Amino acid sequence: MNKSYKETRRSFIKKSTTGTASLLMAPGIFSFNLSEIKAEPEMGKLPSEDEKFMFAGFAEADITPEIGMEQPGGYGKAYHRTFHDPCKVRVAVFDDGKNPAAIVGIDAISIPRSLVLSVRKQVEARCNIPGNSILIAASHSHSSGPLGVMPGEFDHADELVKHLAYEKSITTNPEYYAHVEKSLIESICKAYNSRINSQVGVGKGFE
Fold first, then answer.
1. Is residue 71 located within the same domain as residue 13?
2. Which of 29, 74, 164, 193 has a 20 to 30 A CA-CA distance from 203?
3. 128-146 average pLDDT score
4. Span 93-98, mean pLDDT?
5. Do 125 and 73 belong together in one domain?
6. Within this chain, do residues 153 and 193 fall inside the same structural domain, yes or no?
7. What CA–CA distance (Å, rounded) separates 16 from 27?
8. Which domain holds residue 24?
9. Between vectors from CA 179 to CA 177 and to CA 181, what angle results, nearest 5°?
């Protein structure tokens, strides 16, 4: 770094710092009072005793595929030969007395939209959780079951696309699809029906 560049840089920083300080100290420049800015925001109003309750329920189901079923996650066909841990559906339902909601985790590479919409519709009819209050998320497990390209999904496409979709990608097994759908519906409703009065808190931590 040459001398002239150093001097130019120092001069710029000095002028910038001085100008910023002048603006901050000048009255009327900003609409807020700097003395009112606090390092930590004030906590909100604590809930009353009547507002503290929350019902919560939990459930899970085993959706481990069978040995020999397609294994997702790679290019080309692969098939399950062994299993280490079970694949599961896990559900948590929270209800403040007015707005029940379900958070669902499923060990799957992905979830077909048709499956999500079907589960939401049937759960809403069976246990009154609104469909748009049911969140279903996949763990993107490469050791999960055959949920992928739906049968007939690419029948309209050209031969190359059909070959890639049906012969080189994970395809949905209809029997496994039905098993997962049933497990999702029953687990969500089981969690809803097992709700108990619970205490729920929020916190933060640092490593």
1. no
2. 193
3. 94
4. 92
5. yes
6. yes
7. 19
8. 3-36
9. 70
